[in-house]
Amino acid sequence: MQHVQTVSFPEPQLLADLSPLPEGLTGVVWDMQGAPDEAHGSIDGVILPYLNAGAVLANLGKVPDLKFVQTQSTGFDGVREAAGPAAAVANASGVHAAATAELAVGLILAKLRGIDQAARDQQAERWNPQRRQSLADRKVLLLGIGGIGKELARRLEPFEVTLTRVGRAARTDADGQVHGPDELVALAAGHDILVSVLPLTEATHHLVGAKVLAALPDGALVVNVGRGAVIDTDALTAEVVSGRLHCAIDVVDPEPLPAGHPLWSSENALITPHVGGNASAFEPRILKLLKRQLEALAAGDTPVNLVQQGPFA
């Protein structure tokens, strides 16, 4: 394979943080707001921006000899399509796992223990003690057993929950039984909390739809820190606004929710603005990953976290 020689960085500080680059690599700054110009040289590797990368993905098609694309997110929705099959695509798997798992636990605790309601009561100077659900003894259905799923499972263990895991296919791994997605409706009926950390693919789009949500028991909590469109927003909204289910979601479809959407005003909903991985752990971990990827590219080795092989096949 011909080595990647020129890598673009979405902003100057990221290039500065990773300089000096490994021998043989040239770094340029390209914000992806339009096609690269002559000043950028012949770009063949691109590091996408962390925030709002989807808005500039179309400009990957304006790089004529694209060999490699690196996301700064775990999700890679639309990146492979925008890069084309000839380019390798790598995601940032592992970088966001700890922070996203932390947020998932925080959302679960906040909703179960009524911390969201307590915050509203505080603004009204209202003292309103109630007996709420503990996380202890709850039955949790975890959708997704990759990096974030593993970190979340580790963090849930001390809370004395019963955890059921669902992956791409039924199997047994080092941590025990993994159920397949075809079992979701049956499994939902016996669980108090459903947590999705799934990426968005053709197979996971609306995987949690009306049938799965209807199977959950009254009062169950739906948590999503993966990708919004894994859960059917219309079906979730109907269940939450009716008062039958609760939700605590960091991601949603569409994102952000439009003004006036019923979930905004529902007391059964807790919403954070897609901040799962956007925490203090992000910067040192993304820099460590990018340094490793750049060293691999300079040496002609295969980078890690490939979700599309491109020239590394």
Q: Encode the helix/strand succession as letters.
A: EHEEEHEHHEHEEEHEHEHEHEHE
Overall 3D form: elongated
Average pLDDT figure:
95
Sheet of most strands? 8 strands, mixed
Q: Class by helix and strand content?
A: alpha/beta
Helix content: 25-40%
State the low-pLDDT regions, or none: none
Q: What is the CA-atom radius of gyration, in angstroms?
A: 21 Å
Determine the oligomeric state from the structure: single chain
Could you give the count of β-strands? 14
End-to-end CA span: 10 Å
Q: Helix tally? A: 10
Question: Could you list some keywords that capture this structure?
Answer:
single chain; 313 residues; alpha/beta; 8-stranded mixed β-sheet; 6-stranded mixed β-sheet; 10 helices
Describe what this molecule looks like in 3D.
The chain is α/β, with parallel strands linked by helices and 313 residues long. The protein is 28% helix and 17% strand. It is built from 10 helices and 14 strands. It has helices at residues 12-18, 79-83, 97-112, 115-123, 147-156, 184-188, 210-215, 233-241, 262-265, 282-299; strands at 6-9, 26-29, 45-47, 68-70, 88-90, 139-143, 162-166, 171-173, 176-179, 193-196, 221-224, 246-249, 269-271, 306-308. An 8-stranded mixed beta sheet has the order 8-9-7-6-10-11-12-13, with helices on both faces. Strands 2-1-3-4-5-14 form a 6-stranded mixed beta sheet. Helix 7 (210-215) links the parallel strand 10 and strand 11 (221-224). The chain is elongated and about 65 Å long. The N and C termini lie close together (10 Å). The relative contact order is 0.15.
